[in-house]
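Recall that a protein's primary structure is simply its ordered list of amino acids. Everything else, from secondary elements to tertiary packing, is in principle encoded there. The following example makes that idea concrete.
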Amino acid sequence: MLKKLNFDQVSIKRKLLNTVSLITLILFLNSGLSLNAQTIKLPKPSGNFQVGTVSYTWSDQREEIATPDLNKKREFYVRIWYPTDLEADAKHSDYMPQLDSFGTMVGENFVLRIKKTQTNSYKNQQVSKEKSSYPVVIFSPGYGMSKYYYTHFLEELASRGYIVVAVDFPYLNKLVTTKGVAINPDGNFWNSFPVSAAAEGSYEDAKKKVEMTLEYFSSGIFSVKNELENLNRSDPKGIFTERIDLKKIALFGHSAGALGVKGVMELEDTPFLGFITFDVSIHQVIGSREIIIPHTINITTPVLMFITEYASPPDYDFLKSVSTNIEMHSLSGMNHSSLSDLDYLYYLDNNQNQQAELALKNIRIITSVTVRFLNKLMSN
């Protein structure tokens, strides 16, 4: 039974853009660079906490088959933002470490812009002593994106008292391996995923591909959760030991980054308190070309959905079939990358201040709705 459906704005656009991707947006944002030498400062987070950050590389036992550039076992490239009290010698974290390696994927203009960008998070700080432990948000970026592109939004969540675990996955995100090799998803998402070779043409092949993809990324989320449990027992960096509230974890996925979230939604007994998706259709998955696979799931935990012009909202039959609260917001005037820093940094660096303020306003609207949902979720 549908308990709740909340439309803040009713101007939902139903058109599905078949060829638009985040790669296109990144190419646009890499153009027209202003060579101003001044530092670009991300806006200060509005929460009560200062923000610490630290990076980890984790792996599980799954064989990796994407490319010989990757290690034999699947790796996860993680940055965590979290509440901190700041030490006297605290140093700002770089916006994007290993920037020279990333430069081969994003271009010179983008690199120059990122070199000027200053974050509001500090490296390797201790978790704030204000609380004994903090709830968790596991965040999965969109296709062709990097976890670093969402720094302002993720700093905001951390400043409100959340440990935010952002994960770059092979096949899905721009990443640099532990060997310093840059991996950039090729073409579109399905072409970069190995099972796509066996899933061209028929509905059944496309359905098989979807099922394997959802399993691949949902199993990755559980591997990340296992590593968080290990950190909470004994963090080799001495930061998170006994400071993570493992009973309070929510998942957030942007676009194709929500594939793992959707896979976890299928489980009857989930350890996660709730799910958040940005601009992805939870009721269907595009298999290959024009083939659309209905995604029949029994959602039993609260869901927050953001929809812009890219994704189509669930139909009435789907909403009627679920047994939990679904809160859905149509974000009129926003685009597929509005959650990230990309629009804001581009406009600010090109002295288009009005557009930069609008991009920042968009992030703040998304943050406000997200924090309200999370606070209610974690208080139950």
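The chain has ten helices and 16 strands. Confidence is low (pLDDT under 50) at residues 1-21, 23-29, 31-35.
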